[in-house]
Amino acid sequence: MDQDVRFYVSLIQDDDNNPVYDSESETLHTPISSDDESSKHKFLEFNDDYEHGEGRFELGTRFATIDRFKEVVKDSFIAEGRELRWIKNDKERVRMGCMDDEWPCLVHLSYNNSLQCYQVKTYKNDHTCARDMGSNAADQHWISLKVEKRMNTQPHMRTSEAIDFLREEFSLTAHPKMVYRAVREARERIMGNEREQYSNVRDYLFEILRSNPGSRGFKSGYRPLIHLDGCFLKTYYGGQLLTVVAQDANNQFYVVAYGVTRSETKESWKWFLTLLEEDLGDVQTHGWNFMSDQQKGLLPALKAVMPNAHHQNCVMYIWKNFINRFKDLYIRKVVWDCAKCTTIPKFKEQMEKLKRINQGAWEYLSKFEPATLVKAYFSHGLKVDNLTNNMCEVFN
């Protein structure tokens, strides 16, 4: 031959109805001897332990499944930044090549009945197409598989972080919308489908009742200061999460109850607090005290359901509103100084000092009942002097 042609054609007996031969070669078409027959089962089996872009196969390489072969081909084309064309793609055989019409790269894989596996029967690998920072082989499913591995150590990965990860690890630039869908797909595989998880809530309740018969839970060793809070649910169904958190006898974090509502309103809080009172018992009997950030509709609902309940404000919430109104650095800590007073005379002294410095700041703090803010006015039955609603914030 006048020209060296680098075409690789299989001598393996094809089980396809239309076996693939891409060129003539005396060497490759030499009649099969008895020695060849005895060694025909010694073809290379693909090694699954490889890094991205390093997966190598050759003529005759065996694969357990077509899907595994497709993953390897995708990895190879993406690593080389080339476009992939599927010429034939079904359950029995796969033929693929690059986008060049002259087919400098062509691979054919089909099932070999004698070996009981899928086998590469045609292999040409003379790329002439240009490289790029992208590849049409990088579809949503491929990206999700790569992102899933990183999510094992970075479970809260955002779309922007996934885009940076793909660019750094695979030299790949993918469309943000595709990456967003891939991140969601990977997260569902790791954490489970959100819709399916909601259907398990009732089963979870019954399992708790079954495994803890006769347990009084929070009521058996409680501190009677109950923290209330609500937050948005950034999940499939959305809505609001209403929570009740308290401390046990060891000052440990204790989730008493939680509920999901469509929105945070007076009516939703009334529904939630009514169920809470049924579970925990009468306020006057048990001496329940409540703390909150004054969520929308909460205080009117608490007054309607438990009119005799004592309520405390989160000092952090008041302080943030205070410093937004009054920028004087000297009085920025006055809210905390007042809240930490353990005697009534000390509190009055702090308020008088504030009145002399800033009349407006004094009038603002005077709007709050001391019993909702200052340690000196707290109930002695609580045996706890929490000033913030941080327990609920941590849970949310």
From TrEMBL:
InterPro entries recorded: MULE_transposase_dom
Protein's name according to its UniProt entry: Uncharacterized protein LOC107468445
Region (Disordered): 17-39
Limits of the MULE transposase domain: 226-321
A family per Pfam: MULE
Organism encoding this protein: Arachis duranensis
Superkingdom to which the source organism belongs: Eukaryota
